[in-house]
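Would you kindly consider the sequence and fold I have copied below?
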Amino acid sequence: QINGGHEITVIGYEEDKDGNGYFICNDTDDGIDEPIRIDEKKLIPLIHHAGITTEALSEKDFFDEELWVQVARELKRPA
């Protein structure tokens, strides 16, 4: 647990039939033993810093551009 904050790990991403995006997250503080879905429009403005699992990225994703810009492009969201 983090004082004054909350920690989750993003383990996936999906879209519904209307194109709304959701991050699939592991939240070790919520008392739920399974991943949860969080609407991207709610989560992105709340992020202070983020960890991304190696399964969500590959080596080709690491170059000089900031990682958050790469992820936004992969998700087809404006950076």
Notes: The longest helix spans residues 67-74. The mean pLDDT is 75. Helices lie at 40-43, 67-74.
